[in-house]
Amino acid sequence: MSPTAHVVYGGAAAAVIYPAAGVYSLVFWAASFLIDLDHYIDYVYHNGFTDLSFRKMFDYHNALDAFWFNPAFLNIEMFHTVEVMLPLYMLTAWTGSTLLLAVFFGFVFHIALDMVYLHGNGIFFMRAYSIAEYFMRMRAIKEKGYLPEEIFDAVFSRLLKNPHARSGCSKSSRPMLLAWVPRCVEERGMRRILSIRRSDERR
Hints:
Largest sheet: none
Radius of gyration: 20 Å
Distance between the termini: 47 Å
Strand content: under 5%
Number of domains: 2
Helix content: 55-70%
Number of strands: 0
């Protein structure tokens, strides 16, 4: 779901609860979209902290949308995980803080919207909802012969024009990023599959 949609839906929900929550409805609203700051963390982590641009962060995530149905792709956003939400809930319950309660429910509202959106697009399990789940599923993906990191290499080699990116792909006649990246990864994926098959044949 787009950031704009989260701001709008969060604002509508905040307006509904304002009579009961008062100023804390604004905290709820802010939390309902600021949770997505983990998308920025995801961007700078995957580019090795070589680029801090917010604009390119949006380009990056838009490019990754092309891989929703790619079996090598698995997404995780840290603030959306059980390992973050459970401690936040426990801290809220322990302190009795109304401020933290508003933040917690703002996060829950956001995650619920994401789940509805992902389910509606048939990609509910494209995202891992737990850090432990992520590592287990990522291990299973790699055991099948897929190389998830190649997706990020391909995206950044085009997005950042990084001369050190290990793309190894032929250039597409289509200049747009979203048209080029899937073809790039498809070529590399096919080479990987052929390599595995040759290894099996030798055995």
